[in-house]
Design brief:
This is Potassium inwardly rectifying channel subfamily J member 16. The chain is of the alpha+beta class. Helix content is 35%, strand content 23%.
Length: 379
């Protein structure tokens, strides 16, 4: 009888895993509310203000564009400004008749055609000052124009330096060195089912202060094609973190949690997404940064925990970041937290993690797991 019962449990578990695998594949192909790298796949159509909003905040617009576009824009600005001021110098020389005047009567020394005017404009704008071409006291208009070009060039250089420094110190670059784990796990902690994921700083310099926040995003597609999105905050332990070593963010599946009544099967049938963020201040620059990530039901691994990656040496703590995203199977009831609390303890014959593959990982059934092992705390 025991052998027949074991075979029935394994067959049922394998069928469940096969179904979950197909549902996972469908989930992964669906459009996410937020991508794994923290970007939102949102495209604006007929936004109010159109391009005027970018011109009003031109500095921010320049900081957000790509490097190659920024260099192209500033190169064109310099070249166009040199051409325009060169055209003005050539007009002054043409009106004054410098093409036929003696050298002592020229408005700009050694400028008799447009080529000479453009070269003088470039030397003035770039503050090269070769000395061969220079403005003379014969034309007050030329002197005023040189003054205007010098002021304009200083302003343009200031904007270029400011944009380059802002882009180099961009919070997005620092956010790439602080990251969340690729998946979230559900396991037992102090006899409570918990949803957890990892957060780590991949650089040596540590963060002064950081705050973690989590939102549950639900989106329902209406028959007319529109989508209704709702937001709900999740309670987590230790929101404020000093990230000296990787830490595990924990959300307890207790009464009041929107995931309290969801079991492994229910996760696959619900359209939701966990949007997690970590807002912190870099200790090197003092600039505020934010790292974001999201987890769908396909990214949640039921009955697993993260591998330990912190060890104590003689003089230092040793971190093995190759284990940052590595998980291992642990005995966890194949039940929702609500049902688990209602039963008080796993009932005899409760299905634990089955043999087979779930989320591309292999697990095995142990039908002789004791109650103490099931209620074990995994820290």
């Amino acid at each position: 009888m025991s052998t027949e019962r074991s075979e029935q449990v394994i067959d049922t578990c394998c069928t469940t895993v096969h179904t979950l695998g197909r549902q996972n594949a469908k989930k992964e192909k669906s459009l996410r509310y937020m991508q794994k790298d923290g970007k939102f796949p949102v495209m604006f159509q007929q936004a109010p203000g159109d391009w005027t909003t970018y011109w009003v905040d031109i500095f921010t617009s320049l900081v957000e564009i790509r490097w190659r576009m920024m260099f192209l824009i500033f190169s064109l600005n310099n070249i166009v400004s040199w051409l325009l001021f060169g055209l003005c110098y050539w007009l002054i020389a043409h009106v004054n008749g410098d093409s036929d005047n003696a050298d002592d009567d020229l408005c700009v020394s050694n400028v008799r055609d447009f080529t000479g005017a453009f070269l003088f404009s470039m030397e003035t704008g770039a503050t090269i000052g070769y000395g061969y071409r220079h403005v003379t006291e014969n034309s007050i208009v030329a002197i005023i124009l040189v003054t205007i070009q010098i002021v304009f060039s200083c302003i343009l250089d200031t904007v270029v330096i400011g944009v380059v420094v802002a882009k180099m110190a961009s919070a997005r670059k620092r956010a790439q060195t602080v990251g969340f784990s690729r998946c979230a796990v559900v396991n037992l902690r102090d006899r409570v089912l918990c949803l957890s994921w990892r957060l780590g700083d991949f650089r040596g310099n540590h963060i002064l202060e950081g705050v973690v926040s989590v939102q549950l995003i639900r989106y329902v597609k209406r028959p007319v094609g529109s989508i209704v999105i709702t937001y709900q905050d999740l309670d987590i332990e230790e929101r404020e973190i000093v990230l000296a070593t990787p830490t595990t963010i924990i959300h307890k599946l207790e009464p009041g949690s929107p995931l309290y009544n969801m079991g492994p099967d229910d996760l696959m049938d619900n359209h939701f997404e966990l949007v997690v963020s970590f807002t912190y201040t870099g200790d090197s620059t003092g600039i505020l940064h934010q790292t974001r990530a999201s987890y769908t039901s396909a990214d949640i691994r039921w009955g697993q925990r993260f591998q330990d990656m912190l060890k104590m040496g003689k003089k230092h703590y040793k971190l093995d970041y190759s284990l940052f995203n590595v998980t291992t199977w642990v005995p966890v009831p194949f039940l929702s937290a609500e049902e688990y609390d209602r039963r008080g303890r796993p009932a005899d014959g409760t299905t634990l993690l089955p043999i087979g593959k779930r989320n591309r990982h292999i697990a095995q059934v142990n039908l002789n797991i004791s109650e103490e092992m099931i209620l074990q705390t995994f820290l």
